[in-house]
Design a protein that fits this description.
By secondary structure, the chain is of the alpha+beta class. Strands 2-1-3-4 form a four-stranded mixed beta sheet, sandwiched between helices. Helix 4 packs antiparallel against helix 5. The protein is globular and about 45 Å long. The two termini are 32 Å apart.
Length: 200
Amino acid sequence: MTDPDVTHHVRFLFDPICPWAYQASLWIREVAKVRPLNIDWGLLSLEFINRDTKDDEYLTPLRRIRPTFRLLERARQVGGNQTLDDLYLTIGEARHERKRSLTDRKMLEDALKGAGLSISLIEETRVNRELDEQLDQAYATAVSQGAFGVPTLYLDDSQTPFYGPLIEVIPTGQEAGQLWDHVRGLIELPYFFELKRSRP
């Protein structure tokens, strides 16, 4: 295991509709407060991952949030990684803590304002084939590397993605850092694949 004082880089892929990704995103932000960690945010659509399924009931709500993906990607292009972080945090809080819809225009307007962005981005990205192509290419790259769900983590320069962690409670302070130490330690073992337990 490497020196815990060494600065690490993690690429964190999320789908804004996923509660597990949102929980993990709150945790990884806590980690960055107590460990030398740089976080690079990225998108991975559950619709894209499950595009071959015949379950329309499952896919329909995922299809409806394509404009939100475009909005998040455009925010990254306009304001960079920190702006994407800010917008995801605001949208995630609205969706997963206040149960707002990801297609709620007022919620999206408020989120954009909170991230210092113009609400004109909503119309700009509502239908944008160029953004769709860019996003699909990014999704395809992640899937080709082995990504199959969110949250997905890439550590440092590795092109091997790891799914998880799935956490019910968000640790803070040194507890968040300790969980990161364990997760990072497992990721660094080239022969480690999976550790699971049943949910209550």
